[in-house]
Structures are given as C-alpha cells and as structure tokens.
Amino acid sequence: NAGVTQTPKFRILKIGQSMTLQCTQDMNHNYMYWYRQDPGMGLKLIYYSVGAGITDKGEVPNGYNVSRSTTEDFPLRLELAAPSQTSVYFCASSYDGTQYFGPGTRLLVL
Amino acid sequence: DQQVKQNSPSLSVQEGRISILNCDYTNSMFDYFLWYKKYPAEGPTFLISISSIKDKNEDGRFTVFLNKSAKHLSLHIVPSQPGDSAVYFCAASAVDSSNTGKLIFGQGTTLQVKP
Fold first, then answer.
1. Which of A90, A97, A101 sits opposite B93 (nearest CB)?
2. How far apart are CA A100 and CA A28, in angstroms?
C-alpha cells in the first residue's frame, strides 16, 4: 500500500512551458486535493475532486487545470508556466475528513 | 482573510519539556480540527484530530485541546523529543452541503526541540 504518490519530485520549467504533475492514490479514496505551499505560508487549495468525473476550484485555481477520470488519479496541469507558480505542490486524498498527503513536487519556473 | 491563524512562526523548547503550539480560527462553522507535522522535503503527515463535540483528544504524547468559545485550539507534546522538530500545521474544516472535506490550513509553526 503506497498511499499517495507524486511525480516528478522536482522540475525546472521555462516561462510559458506546460507540464502535468501526476498524483495517484491506492487507498480507494473518493476525495482528492491539490495544494501549493509557498515559503512561510500554509497550504493553499488549488483544486479538489469528490469523485471520478467531478472537480471544482479551490482558493487559488488560476493558471491550473485538473481532471479526474479514475478514482486513483488526479493530475494537475499547468498550461503556461509563470514565475508565480514556483512552489511546492502537494496532492492529498481522503475518505473521512482526514487528508493523507503525497511527498510533494518542487517546481521552479525560470 | 486568514480563517486559521498560527501566530507563532517558531518555538524552541528543551528536550523533555512540554511544547505548546497554538492555533486560532475565526469561522464558527468549523467543526473538525486537525494537526499535521511536516519534515523538510516531505509531505505533511496527520498527527491528531478533534471534533467540535469534544474539548480534548489524547494520543500518546500528543494532546489537542479545543476551546470553542475562544475559537482556539492547542497541541501539547509531552515530553518533547528532538525527533519532534518539524513544522506543525493546524487545519480546520466545516460541514458543507457538498461534503467536500476541504481543509483550511494555518501558516505553520516551526518547532525546534533542543537536546
């Protein structure tokens, strides 16, 4: 049981490039979330999903997109990377209100 | 509009003593509170939680206290150990009609336990 896994661990992007951050969970959780954490700040919710085929915006969704075609996977897409998207991204899943996090993806946009 | 606040960015305590981390919230609809611990280059890990129908929850060395009238919760670690050195986040959620389970996080408090 791997829990929540995220790939890649680290990525450098040039301004304007696009990429997909992968998130997979093997706990059969319905709820999944994407957060970003900036230095000295808490986690800010980007997007969330309450089940396959259902997604909704969180607190800071601009510049991102998500999809949820299966229960296990919840990829986060950056279409036109900007320096303001330099951050650490965490994916989480839940079934009872307690969220379980992946190890994070560190993204640097230059 | 910071609905969950951890006003102390850092805390330093001696090994064996008590660590008390504090968290304040503004939204009276919050009914479930959690503490997470985060080591560098890792994801947050769940530590302990409390429902609004309780005022205390204990798990080994960790106890969370909830004061609903003051909209305040605290995490007590007794005794503190060097391995407890990490960033601690409090988080809160409110029951909503969509049952989304969304959490609102505080900014975090860095705890350093000195040997």
1. A97
2. 12
Fold of A4-105: Immunoglobulin-like (2.60.40)
SS3 B40: coil
Please give the angle made by the CA atoms of B100, B103 and B104, to the nearest 5 degrees. Answer: 135
Write down the domain spans for chain B. 4-114
- Given CB atoms, is A24 within the 8 Å cutoff of chain B? no
The arithmetic mean of pLDDT across residues A70-91, rounded, is 97
User: Residue A25: which residues within 8 A CB-CB, separation 6 or more?
Assistant: A3, A4, A5, A32, A72, A74, A91, A93, A100, A102
| Residue B47 pLDDT | 97
Does residue B108 contact residue B38 with C-beta atoms inside 8 Å?
A: yes
Q: Nearest CA of chain B to the CA of A63: how many Å? A: 20
* Model pLDDT for residues A38-68, shown as the tens digit of each residue: 988 889 999 999 999 999 999 999 999 999 9
* Superfamily for domain range B4-114: Immunoglobulins (2.60.40.10)
For A84, list phi and psi in degrees, rounded to 5. -70, -10
A64-66/A54-57 β-pairing: unpaired
Residue A100: what are its φ and ψ, rounded to 5°?
-115, 130
Q: Rounded to an integer, what distance in angstroms lies between the CA atom of residue A38 and that of residue A47?
A: 16
Phi, psi torsion values for B40, nearest 5 degrees = -55, 140
